[in-house]
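Internal tracking record. Fields below are filled automatically when a chain is submitted to the structure queue. Please do not edit lines marked as system-generated. If the sequence contains nonstandard residues, flag them in the REMARKS field before resubmitting.
Queue: standard
Priority: normal
Entity type: single polypeptide chain
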Amino acid sequence: MYAIVRDRGTQYRVEEGQKLRIALMEAEAGSTIEMNEVLMVGGAEGARIGSPVLNGASVQAEVLGDVKGDKIIVFRYRNKKRYRRRTGHRQKYTEIKISKIIA
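SYSTEM-GENERATED OUTPUT FOLLOWS
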């Protein structure tokens, strides 16, 4: 069974037992969160599609902790002007594990 959920404007396809990185949120490691914006639930018996969300459907997940993504290098350059700027960025994420899909 799988579900498509929306979390703060981003859609994810999730299955039970899957680990997922979502945008940083204020949650303690080990706590449980519930996502109520379920757009679609699918499985062997077929798919149910909401308009826009399914009533009564939710996805429960366990918060594993906060992690950092890969470093992204931003390099600005103007030719013939001796202008070079090199900066880096690492995005912070919250890692969760999907524990239960309630259809």
